[in-house]
Amino acid sequence: MKKKVQFTETVLRDANQSLMATRLPYSDYADILPTMDKAGYYSVECWGGATFDSCLRYLGEDPWERLRSIRKNMPNTRLQMLLRGQNLLGYKHYHDDVVEKFVELSIKNGIDVIRIFDALNDFRNIKTALEATKKYATPRTVASGCISYTQSPVHTVAKYVEMCKELKSMGFDTICLKDMAGTMSPNEAEGLIKGIKDAIGEMPIILHTHCTTGMAYMTLMKAIDSGVDVIDTATSCFSNGTSQAATETMFYALQQYGIETGLNEEVINKVNDYFKPIKQKYVDSGLINPKSMATDSQALVYKVPGGMLSNMIANLKDMNAMDKFDEALVEIPNVRKDLGYPPLVTPLSQMVGNQAVTNVLMGERYKQISKEIKNYFKGEYGTAPGEVSSQLQAKILGEGGQPTDCRIEDSKRTGKEFQKAREALGDLCRSEEDMMSYICFPDQAEKFFQERLAKEENVATYTITEA
Fold first, then answer.
1. Contact of 48 with 89, CB cutoff 8 Å
2. Three-class SS of residue 2?
3. In this predicted structure, what is the pLDDT of residue 409?
């Protein structure tokens, strides 16, 4: 039987998140969506991750309306989102009833593939999201269990194989290896994919990696040789650097090997042609920083994912502290070690990155400790992969203090979050989706709803005046 490898296109989410901190507005790509719908992708990743926050905070968009618009213009393509398990799309754990309602609304508004992960690979924190996905599933729904890949003294092939076995037993439909920093080597990919395939059989395996270190193309090809079923890529003008490998390049290579992809070559080239001037616009404006487009082999040491790097650059620029960039980069592995080697993926990537920047700017390590890092040591994000710094733990929890060894949100289905949202928003809340936006990002959502109302009132006034 002829081998087949399918593609997930990331330009609408992770590619622009990695290169330009998720600042790509819907209006920039609305016109190309009907064409993308004919490309033959396995899926298009278009939602989740940082898109929700960016829509409300920076772009003046309703993330739910964005999703509905994409769905309307791409009826034949699986739409995919990235969900942070119990964190949803925010930076804290939410109660189980909130997680379930968010998943229900995501599917209702057009999501087909829900890629669910936990930053610490603590699978207690993805169980509720999986159960909700199965509960509200349509015939097109795919629950994809995701492993945050990293290297450290506590992360081994045997450990990852056991994780995959657990995800399969939990009931996921596919398994994704998420190499957010692009540090997986071809040799590691071969051993890992073969080990997983031997352990779980025909269950589809997906590889998500980045070009940050220059490894991605080699790693993807070796993973394909080893049996991977789906790869994540980005249309070429939005590829490379801290983004994914190029869709057209991988298509061309696989075609020569006689590997089926299901892609329409003419269509994927049209997609890239459309995005070329858009990419150039943001390069010219400075929103896409040259550092994000470059290959940095030092990421093999720092383990920094693309989205984390672009956000760190943006934050340092805002503080006029770009001269501290290299020093902050060196500090990241030190903070990561102190935290027990968590994978650097949202929200842990932001937490570690922000603490590293703070340590450098303050001129003293842990002179100021973020609330999120304190909560991490309390056990509110799950169990650390390795041993944490005893000194830092004592500083945060007191001598002899220990983290809580449980999933913080176990069985909390009080409904209070929904009630609080309704009371806080009043007439500004028009739907369950509005309520959910407020629960996830209260300040940003309320501001957006107020601006929405003001625009509508201005339009009404203008219409009356014109009449």
1. yes
2. coil
3. 57
Full-model pTM? 0.90
Residue type, 394: A
pLDDT at 2 over 70: no
Closest CA to 99 of 89, 86, 112, 90: 86
451, containing H or E segment: helix 442-466
Identity of the amino acid at 311: N
Q: CB neighbours of 73 closer than 8 A, spacing ≥ 6?
A: 30, 33, 34, 37
- pLDDT of the residue at 93: 85
Q: What's the pLDDT score for residue 1?
A: 54
Answer yes or no: is pLDDT of 461 > 70.
no
Axis crossing angle, helix 96-108 with helix 432-440, rounded to the nearest 10: 130
CA atoms within 13 A on the CB side of 413: 7
Cα dist from 142 to 48, 78, 79, 80, whole Å: 15, 9, 10, 9
Taking a C-beta distance cutoff of 8 angstroms, is the pair 54, 23 a contact? yes
Backbone φ, ψ for residue 8 (5° rounding):
-105, 120
- Is 371's pLDDT higher than 70? yes
